[in-house]
Amino acid sequence: MYHYNNADHQLIAERVEQFGSQVQRRLNNELSEEEFKPLRLMNGLYLQLHAYMLRVAIPYGTLSSDQLRKLAVIAQRYDRGYGHFTTRQNIQYNWLELEDVPDILVELAEVEMHAIQTSGNCIRNVTADPLAGVAADEIEDARVFAEIVRQWSTLHPEFSFLPRKFKIAVSAAENDRVLLRSHDIALRLHRNDVGETGFEVMAGGGQGRTPVLAPTIREFLPQADLLSYLEAVLRVYNQLGRRDNIYKARIKILVMETGAEAFAAKVEEEWARIKDGALFLPEADIARIKADFAPPIYDDLDDTDPALAADLAKNPNFARWVRSNVDTHKQPGYGIATISLKPPGGIPGDVTAEQMEKIAAIADHFGFGEIRVTQKQNLVLPSVRKRDLYAVWLELDEIDLAAGNAGLLTDIVACPGLDYCNLANARSIPIAQRLSERFHDLEEQHDIGEITLNISGCINACAQHHTANIGILGVDKKGTEHYQITLGGRADGGDAIGTIIGPAFTAKEVDGAVDTIINVYLDQRQDGETFIAAIGRLGLEPFKEKLYAAA
Amino acid sequence: MTQIVITANRAREGCVVYLAGPGIWSKNLSDALVIEGKDAADALLSGALRDAAADAIIGPYGFPVSVNNDGITVLSQREKIRIHGPSIQIPSAREKQHVPL
């Protein structure tokens, strides 16, 4: 994986020192909250309901076992023994005191980590396909380009005060695991007619109160032009994006109001001026970063493993786990193992320090010391020999993380909601826990099949409920928590924003409502038809009828 | 008449505090001043904003409560969570529920 060069080390060290001094001045009352707030936000430090919260970036979702161990140490030493993995490849600590934050940043820097640009109106932590480098369905390693974008965007002086936050995602795979069209800019690496690889560029997507799927503004961008083109997009946004209204400040509003074609034309115009300048990306530079992401030295194995076949035959729970949690690796004889952070009744994305340490040890023993963080709030061991999968699963079971539910109903994405978040209107976690308990039966879940269920505690939609097959949005109705359900959202390449099914449900009713929805699907599905395909065929009426029949 | 308590977060720890008297902020809701009526609350809130300007606390605001013999009762879910912490058991406090396979 990529390791910091001298410039990276110097930059992080200077930044840590600078923020440490700013914190000290704040503690000495030499800086007011008004002055300090933009500084802390630039360093990922929020004030939530109960305490300060630090959001630490996990660039392109790649962690070494040493880094994960450090995250465990921080959870233990400065927090309450756990952390929360988010939908954007970050980890959040919920219970920090301000005076400890400089020490935490020093500890993070020791393992080449930081919290820069995880908040504020700047280019946020660049996300990438969590299976990049190992997925059988990719054409290149997306992390190479995510790293190039990270280097360009880190402390970019021109883009440190954008109209609003700005999120970039990169994928090079056939299957979208990054919610491409929900991003301010999304880059999808693909091959053109003559076999060259370049980017489809999408711009102006986002969730929040105005969900928009990003339109494509360029079908094919040569790799060498990546940074100059991004700079052109950001310049157009920085200049024309609205600063008068926070709800209209995201690039999605600019692209919608301008029209995708006209917006693209403005970008092209700006790009023509800077295209072959300092940001031109020579092949040698790309090759240098590629070398940093060279794959580990794999064993030369047959793809089918007799030991795995025997383990599958003797343990149906393990067989289910392999079916749902193990993806196809590009290297024969290896698998990609998803560690579901959604045990029955658990809190999506939360991991204790003890679990982190155990996962780091498993990664060292069985998986080249590498871990990935997914947009579904799970972790991944990217390269496990098929013959070791059973041993890995047994070890995960020791820390209650062996659930075979990845991509199934209880693989719920949930934001922290009103239990932690200053912006939330309603709780997300207890709803996720109730659903997780109600549908914990794995046989039943495997029968229901592929489905996405996301729960956001407010319209900011941090849990990306708009593009979930079943989206649940917490709203406040006269002081009580209610939950609005949307159906039909998807972020799987056939992207769609879900449709609100009808009046909101109370907290007590919401899991029953999901049960009703699932039952309509089970009653009416055709052979092999997934939940989302059934909605496409049936429309929403049969679901509405059952849900509101008694009303 | 509406009864109001003024709350904020303490700048240093980030923790929840309640206005207990002029310039005095307490972590305990039971210490909080209960203010009768919006006008009185507004007057105290101005004082709280001065405390914020002096950087002891962040983001003061008033919220409705009811008071009976048992003390102060908070009405909204948000304020209940601010007082008692998350409504769920945090992961590190959960009993290990390991069921061997």
Protein architecture, described:
The complex is a heterodimer of chains A (551) and B (101). Chain A has 551 residues and is an alpha+beta fold. Chain A folds into four domains: 6-110, Sulfite Reductase Hemoprotein, domain 2; 142-292, Sulfite Reductase Hemoprotein, domain 1 (2-Layer Sandwich), CATH 3.30.413.10; 306-398, Sulfite Reductase Hemoprotein, domain 2 (Alpha-Beta Complex); 416-547, Sulfite Reductase Hemoprotein, domain 1. Helix content of chain A is 38%, strand content 18%. Chain A has helices at residues 6-27, 33-42, 65-78, 101-110, 142-153, 226-240, 251-258, 260-274, 283-292, 306-314, 316-325, 353-366, 389-398, 429-438, 442-448, 507-524, 531-538, 541-547; strands at residues 45-47, 52-57, 62-64, 82-85, 90-96, 127-128, 168-171, 185-191, 197-203, 216-222, 326-328, 334-339, 350-352, 370-373, 379-385, 413-414, 453-456, 470-477, 480-487, 499-500, 505-506. The radius of gyration of chain A is 23 Å and the shape is globular. By secondary structure, chain B is an alpha+beta fold. Chain B has one domain (3-86). Chain B is 24% helix and 35% strand. Chain B has two helices and six strands, in the order E-E-E-E-H-E-E-H. In chain B, strands 1, 2, 3, 4, 5 and 6 form a six-stranded antiparallel sheet that branches. The radius of gyration of chain B is 17 Å and the shape is globular. Chains A and B meet through strand 13, helix 13 and helix 14 of A and helix 2 of B.
Could you provide a short overview of the structure?
Chain A has 551 residues and is of the alpha+beta class. Chain A is 38% helix and 18% strand.
